[in-house]
Amino acid sequence: MQDAAPAISKGFFVNFTDQGAEPGTQLGDPFADPARNYWRGAAVFSCEAFGVPIEPGCLLKALGRDR
User: Fold this and answer.
1) What is the C-alpha R_g of the chain?
2) Could you write out the DSSP letters of every residue in the chain?
3) N or C: which end of the chain has fewer CB atoms below 10 A?
4) What distance in Å separates the CA atoms of residue 58 and residue 52, rounded to the nearest whole number?
5) Residues spanned by the domain of 27
6) Where is pLDDT greater, at 13 or 27?
């Protein structure tokens, strides 16, 4: 059996193309701290996240709206 954590970590922090580090001095953040940085990332759920194979209309099927 293989540990999943290293592969998951690599997926999030190495192979995730739309991620970024931003300074901790975000405008409007009442807890802003210049010594801290933010990690910003985006994730998109696919049909496979719901156990449905990827194909045209699969998200409607996954959400039960293909009727």
Assistant:
1) 18
2) ---SHHHHHHHHHTS-SSEEEEES--TT-TT--TT-EEEEE-----GGGGT----TTHHHHHTT---
3) N
4) 7
5) 5-62
6) 27
Q: Is the pLDDT of residue 31 over 80?
A: yes
Would you say the C-alpha torsion 48, 52, 58, 62 has a positive or negative sign? negative
Instruction: Say whether pLDDT at 13 is over 60.
Output: yes
Q: pTM score > 0.85 for this model? A: no
In a domain, 32, yes or no: yes
pLDDT band (50, 70, 90) for residue 59 = confident
The answer to whether the beta carbons of residues 17 and 43 sit under 8 Å apart is no
* Two tokens, residue 8: 């998951």
* Domain count within the chain: 1
Residue type, 30: P
